[in-house]
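Ticket reopened. Same input as before:
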Amino acid sequence: MSSYQSYIYDLSEVKIIEEIAKGTGTSSLGGRKEKKYDWLRPRVSKLHHLGHRTPPFRFILLTVHIFTAIFFSFFFLQNRMGIKGLTKLLADNAPKSMKEQKFESYFGRKIAIDASMSIYQFLIVVGRTGNEMLTNEAGEVTSHLQGMFSRTIRLLEAGIKPVYVFDGKPPDLKRQELAKRYSKRADATEDLNDALEAGNKEDIEKFSKRTVKVTKQHNDDCKKLLRLMGVPVVEAPSEAEAQCAALCKENKVYAVASEDMDSLTFGASRFLRHLMDPSSKKIPVMEFEVAKVLEELDLTMDQFIDLCILSGCDYCDSIRGIGGLTALKLIRQHGSIEKILENLNKERYQIPDDWPYQEARKLFKEPSVLTNDDQIELKWSPPDEEGLITFLVNENGFNSDRITKAIEKIKAAKNKSSQGRLESFFKPAPNASVPVKRKETTQKAMKEPASKKAKGGAGKKKK
Amino acid sequence: MLELRLVQGSLLKKVLEAVKDLVNDANFDCSATGFSLQAMDSSHVALVALLLRSEGFEHYRCDRNISMGMNLGNMAKMLKCAGNDDIITLKADDGSDVVTFMFESPTQDKIADFEMKLMDIDSEHLGIPEAEYHAIVRMPSSEFARICKDLSSIGDTVVISVTKEGVKFSTRGDIGTANIVCRQNTTVDKPEEATVIEMNEPVSLTFALRYFNSFTKATPLSNTVTLSLSSELPVVVEYKIAEMGYIRFYLAPKIEDDDEDAKP
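Engineering reply: fixed in the latest deploy. New output:
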């Protein structure tokens, strides 16, 4: 296998991603459930492709969802990829920048999606039993195709026009992060072998998930699938997140959908989380607007980028002891990382010896992306029926009836996406009326900054 | 302080029945001129605009402009508890997070107070410009409701075309097609039974039928309905509420796919 771009995350991240991908509607055979109901289906076979949920099984899933809800609390506590703790920081300090939206409200919108991240999720969760995955007759993994196919259909059915963006060459700065992931995967591979010898089912599954990596083959398969489905594919020169954000900035797409908060740092004007979560989980889509983030935090875009670097990003280390909140305080006080470094108590906070924050900043500000001049064409076309059947059924052993039905769904969805939106005719107008409860909220808003200032003052004294 | 007394309580009940399926939560805006609501459905395809002018209320007091966020399903539940002949009074104190519905029986021997919690709803208000429509069709509301119901048993979408011949509603589905033409007809006994077509330019637009079927829940509010159509504008389906105002539904048309690069 060629090491195209590899991903490995520590356990907590795997858990998070698992949560995200679990039950995308596609991945009803997620890990934990699978284990529990092993006796129901001793082997994963290609019969389980698409719509494998039988009614009683669906009922069992309900209980499983309660299970996952318990793990859900981990979701917010653990470090995630992207910017550390940014969601919480925004929720506390810029609550107006995030808005809950209904999934349906995005119909007719063009949405850019980081494909590589999605593929990784699918490989971890879709159709997995222990270390066995969905495969075709030749024994090649097809989990990613299954996942990509079902999820894309779900988006199309909702009238959304997805654009998938694939990673290109990782930036040099990310090498370090990738090397870390690589060594973790190597460790996990060893652990997996031990577990296989010991025959411990739980461990086998746990470690085999950690050995997952997205290869060039996976990416190419998915690109082929998407093109056959009539969905546009963009190949980023470097980071997919950055390319997504660039598309959004140029107004080529309405928003970027991802679970990675990096998108905001790259300047995507609108960023959606939980868009691809299963409807069964009833989690509303969370919409972030970067303009509102800046307004509420009272920062410029450059300062926001510095804040993200200080909080901890993929490209360089952060300063020990400085988390999101301290970083926000420092940025507000000094205005930039340079100024902060001048004023920072070097004994209290250790600045990493090799700290390429300037390069990281440059990556966020001027990432290597395709722009308008490169004439990216986003076109949604009818699906290539024959092509899909050849690729999925003949080459990858999917059930032909189900694929035919799914193609019908794509065609029906195409019709739906022609529905116009009211906003394209009427523009938002300022609302003159005052809500009854406005009094309360303004009071609250007044209180918050006051208490923040108090804390800030205390912080200064300590120095 | 807000106090609105509506003698015709059943009217408010009907209004709620008309909008509650389309919109879950909405802000009711009160000002000196009247009691209004504007809200979009969750997919932002349809919009409802309601106006009940202050003159229509027996007593109308609104000291300052306020907007009250309500869950329409819950509000409908409360209003269901009012009798059809009851007088309904709406009350809210400044800064309070509840609204009170008071139902008085016509003989004044029973008074019921229902208090409902308000909610904070972050909703966008759309500015709807005044427009000259290419064609305006007025017809009996029950007739329109019947047409929408019949067509939706055949297909999902309706093409409404207005020509000098009349107005044509057509659909197409798996089992076949349907076309209904209504001609101008003003020689009727009662004016509300007339079908009147004013046309400046022929127009033809496609819409999703399920929204129309939701709009026609407003049929009990008025004997007639007015459809205003322009190419490249949402259709307006208006039910006049006698002596009080109107309830208007706006629906974005379906657009043919070739203008792909319209909006992100």
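The beta strands of chain A are 98-101, 110-114, 161-166, 233-235, 255-257, 270-273, 285-289, 427-429, 434-435. Confidence is low (pLDDT under 50) at residues 1-80, 436-463 of chain A. Please confirm and we'll close it.
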